[in-house]
Amino acid sequence: MSSKDLRAAAAIVGFGDYHCTADEKKSPLHVASLAVSAALKDAGLEKDDIDGVLTGREPSGDQRPQWQNILSAYLKITPTYSSQITIHAAGMNSMLKHAAMAVTAGVAKYVLCVGADSIAYLNPRVHVAGIDTDPEFEQPYEPIIPAIYAQIACRLMHEQGLTEKHLAGVAVQCQDWGIHHPFASKASKGPLTIEQVLSSRMIAAPLRLWMCATWGPPGTGGAVIVTTAENARRISRNPIYILGSGECVTHDYLSDRMGLRRSRLALGNLPSITATGCRIAAANAYEMAGIGPDDVDVVQTPSNFAHSELLSLNELGFASSTAEAGELVLSGETGPGGRLPTNTNGGWLSFGQCGPACVMDSVMETVRQLRQETRGKRVERPEIGLVHALGGMQACHSVTILSTST
Amino acid sequence: MKLLGKENTTRPDPVARKADGFTYPRVSPEALPYWEGCLQNELRYQRCGDCSEPVFHPRAVCPYCLSDNLSWECSEGVGEIYSFSVQYVALYPEREGNLPRAVGIVALKEGYHMFTELEIPVGSELRVGQKVRVYFDRVADDLALPKFRID
User: Fold this and answer.
1) In what helix (H) or strand (E) does residue B17 lie, and over which residues does it extend?
2) Do residues A258 and B105 make contact, with C-beta atoms less than 8 angstroms apart?
3) What are the backbone dihedrals phi and psi of residue A258, each rounded to the nearest 5 degrees, phi first?
4) Burial class (CB in 10 A: 0-12, 13-18, 19+), B43
5) Which residue of A has its CA nearest to B112?
6) How many domains does chain A have?
7) Which helix (H) or strand (E) element contains residue A399?
8) Considering the domain boundaries, does residue A69 fall inside one?
9) Are A309 and A347 spatial neighbours (Cβ–Cβ below 8 Å)?
10) Out of A129, A158, A201, whose CB is closest to B128?
């Protein structure tokens, strides 16, 4: 048995999502409930059809652990297969793999996968730094998260010739998509130029304001229902097949990554912070799906900071360095009308990051593109969509490949 | 001995604690000799007696060979800048007077890396690869933070 046996063996038969408007305050359980309700309706299923429940990491706006249980009890769902899937936020993407494993093994028939958050009630700057930086060896120096991510950008500039203009290009590309999406946090700021990005204020050099994701929308919830491909063909007109999935975890806190001096995995010259687990996760996902980068029609990557998208494009196989990825972005190929539409809802940079649920936004945008039901700009009939999700400080990577056909 | 804001430092503290003007680190028992060393102007790290690897952050067992034959050594405190960022936003708004500050990763001569604060030189810029040397910033009676400046 290999992961290839899972290829197209399971499918999404229902999806639902909910985004809060700028001045709308709803709890994570509230937005999750609205997403679940919409997903059940879309699938034509009843609540009692659900026998599996997975959620990602607990929302930053409701930090109770074992949140899958909190949600199930809130909705009076009584699953016989249930867990929280968390490799930081990236676990939300991996929920699809776990659901596929469960339904193909016969452990569950319909697995509900939910990711939600609401950040209307917290101070994300302090909250996230408290989770994602080392409490003993980093926090006494009081870094903000951009200053942690900037360590990677600094090294990429040193090692790969990445430039500020490349970083600015990502912000412009994300905004080019985001201005078309009614819930993108930065949409109201309108079209953007490289010059505007490069004159925005410095946050943590080399990262300027426009190169950092914003916190928003204030609430976001996404839900999908996964069942076997066989059952999906029976009950759904437009199932979205799970073709491939891979994940890789290399560390937790960024500076501790420099203690990883060797690995069984091909992570380049160790120790390093410039080669991530994305390449490994992608290789596993491509192998399971039996496809390569050239077959992908639409891509969602992390873009919490501008260089994250370039790291992804490089390690997903669309470029051979982050600088080359930067040139690809500047050429317009990843923007609207381009050959490799990337972060089509505006990405985390322009759509925003609503806590860990930003990963669910990437999943939902892919499903919406594949089903041609987008709220923002639509890509012309994509058949294969790739979601790369990132968790922590480039610590956890999950790649899922979805398709309209087997 | 009072260390890291606690009378009894053998009791683990799962989180870092914000204090007046600085942040106490989380107290982990494995790392107490490191923090005690800082108060004595010594930059300590562990070395594995079996595989010879330098070990930092402090561990109960060597993360490379899983031996518990670890002993403490004293670093010369010199190395070079691996990466850095100049931070223009404070984690806590009341600390904005301390900006800009540089934080970075230093590669120590003994073969390990650590996150730290870097003193911004007057009239020049920080660069990857620059030689730096440790100094100990006594932020409180019971806490000294190792920081680095251009050597």
Assistant:
1) strand B17-18
2) yes
3) -70, -10
4) buried
5) A259
6) 1
7) strand A396-403
8) yes
9) yes
10) A158
Q: What is the rounded distance in angstroms from the CA atom of residue A74 to the CA atom of residue A31?
A: 12
Residue A80 pLDDT exceeds 90: yes
Asked if A203's CB is within 8 angstroms of B89's CB, the reply is yes
Instruction: Yes or no: say if B108 and B78 are a contact pair by the CB < 8 Å rule.
Output: yes
CB A26 within 8 A of CB A118: yes
Mind giving me the DSSP string for B39-88?
Answer: HTT-EEEEEETTT--EE-S--SS-TTT----EEEEEE--EEEEEEEEEE-
Residue type, A48: D
The Cβ-side half-sphere exposure at B124, using a 13 Å CA radius, reads 7
ipTM of the complex: 0.96
Sign for the CA dihedral angle at A68, A71, A73, A77 comes to: negative
Q: Which residues 6+ apart lie within 8 Å of A323 measured at CB? A: A160, A161, A162, A163, A166
CATH number at residue A58: 3.40.47.10
Window 16-75 of B: residues touching A by CB (8 A cutoff) are 16, 22-28, 31, 53, 55-57, 63-64
By residue range, what is the domain housing residue A98? 3-122+217-226
**C-alpha triplet B22, B9, B11: angle, nearest 5°:** 115
As separate numbers, helices (DSSP H) first and strands (DSSP E) second, chain B gives 1, 10
CATH architecture of B17-150: Beta Barrel (2.40)
Instruction: Choose the weakest-confidence range: A324-338, B8-22, B88-102, B126-140.
Output: B8-22
Joined together, the tokens standing for residue B118 give 């870097």
Any CB–CB contact under 8 A between B88 and chain A?
yes
Tens of pLDDT, residues B61-86: 999 999 999 999 999 999 999 999 99
CA–CA distance, A15 with A45 (Å, rounded to integer) = 11
Say whether residue A380 is in contact with chain B using an 8 A CB cutoff. no
Cβ A198 vs Cβ A238: under 8 Å:
no
User: Quick check: B87 contacting A, CB < 8 Å?
Assistant: yes
- The Cα A122–Cα A31 span in angstroms is 16
Give me the residue label for tokens 């070079």: B80
The amino acid that residue A306 corresponds to is A
Question: Cα separation of A400 and B137, whole Å?
Answer: 47
Q: Which of A104, A82, A142 is nearest to A10 (CA)?
A: A104
Q: In whole angstroms, what is the distance from residue A95 CA to residue A76 CA?
A: 21
Confidence of residue B122 (pLDDT cuts 50, 70, 90): very high
Q: Examine residue A14 and state whether it is found in any structural domain, yes or no.
A: yes
- Residues A13 and A41: beta-carbon distance below 8 Å: no
